[in-house]
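for the writeup, i need someone to sanity check this before i put it in the appendix. the sequnce is what the collaborator sent (i think, or maybe the updated version? ugh). structure was predicted straight from it, no edits. if anything looks off just tell me and ill rerun, i have time this weekend
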Amino acid sequence: MTHAAYELFHSDLRIVETAIKYQYESQEAFTRAFQKMFSISPGRFRKQTKMKDKRA
């Protein structure tokens, strides 16, 4: 899941593409697992990281 978070931060792959890449059966399953581990949804994580990049 850490690799998937890295992928969300450093690539423009859609969340569903990341989910498939890391062998989740659906975007929903990936989102549940991501949120359980990081306490934030993949979409919110990506938006926050993009905001941080723009400020730097």
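The mean pLDDT is 89. The radius of gyration is 11 Å.
thx in advance!!
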